[in-house]
Design goal:
single chain; alpha/beta; six-stranded mixed sheet; 14 strands; 23% helix; globular
Length: 260
């Protein structure tokens, strides 16, 4: 398949209330029948909470089961991050669930030090590429956006997905870096952020958007407002552009070695 329809769901989140957040997202998913991939924000079921032992679920828990159910009902993939307890640790896990019941995941590598995330969650060590409907998606979470080496396209993905709780005071950084990642990696970039405020005293502007491989904003949501934006990604157009402008052939070779 050379075209895929994707939806970004930008919303307020209810603090540590998984059921309320899931009800809202289910309503939005049900309204969009022609979408093949839904993208939800970081920690979409709980907000960006450091009360990790309270909010963490297992891979057999209610949120993963809810995602599986929604993916099956919608006939579409569903992705977003959740606090997960697994193998004796708690991680900020980006889950990618497909309608046939597959669950793939990436554990956030770069933990937000200024919010003490590293004190409550354990960092992941490897990036993850998910293949779905002919597209290759590289999964990333929020603060990962500031680290371009980790996201460097080694011609193993077509789309970068960033899910986030990115605060309003740094919204210009978010917008700038999403475009930068698209340009330097010659890839589509999906950035899904939340709006509203949380119990950390932070406010969020959203600025959820789809950026094309030229770094241009293809579509975006209204600042500070809940909503859904739907657009399509064209793999053939991306490949044609890379054939005409193969900057990746002159990229500096490197091997990424985890330091922890």
């Amino acid at each position: 398949m050379s075209v895929i329809r994707v939806a970004l769901i930008q919303s307020e989140l209810v603090w540590q209330d998984s059921a309320a957040n899931q009800r809202y997202f289910a309503q939005q998913i049900e309204k969009h029948k022609d979408v093949q991939l839904f993208v939800l924000p970081e920690m979409f079921n709980s907000c960006f909470s450091m009360d990790s032992t309270r909010i963490a679920e297992t891979m057999e828990g209610l949120t993963v089961q809810w995602m599986l159910q929604q993916a099956k009902l919608a006939g579409a993939a569903l992705c977003g991050s959740v606090a997960i307890a697994a193998e004796g640790k708690i991680v900020n896990r980006f889950l990618f669930v497909t309608p046939d019941g597959q669950v793939q995941f990436y554990d956030k590598r770069h933990l937000f030090r200024m919010g003490n995330e590293q004190q409550h969650y354990q960092a992941g060590a490897e990036r993850v590429i998910v293949c779905y409907l002919g597209f290759r998606f590289c999964l990333q979470v929020c603060y990962d956006l500031r680290f371009p080496v980790f996201a460097r396209n080694q011609q193993d993905y077509d789309v970068l997905i960033y899910v986030a709780n990115w605060p309003q005071p740094r919204r210009q950084v978010w917008r700038t870096l999403l475009s930068a990642r698209a340009i330097e990696n010659q890839a589509y970039v999906l950035g899904c952020n939340r709006v509203g405020s949380d119990d950390n005293g932070l406010s969020y502007s959203g600025d959820s958007m789809v950026v094309d491989y030229l770094g241009q904003i293809q579509t975006e949501l209204a600042v500070g407002q809940s909503g859904v934006v739907v657009t399509q990604l064209d793999l053939s157009a991306l490949e044609q552009f890379k054939q005409k402008f193969p900057a990746y052939l002159d990229a500096d070779p490197f091997v990424l070695t985890p330091s922890f």
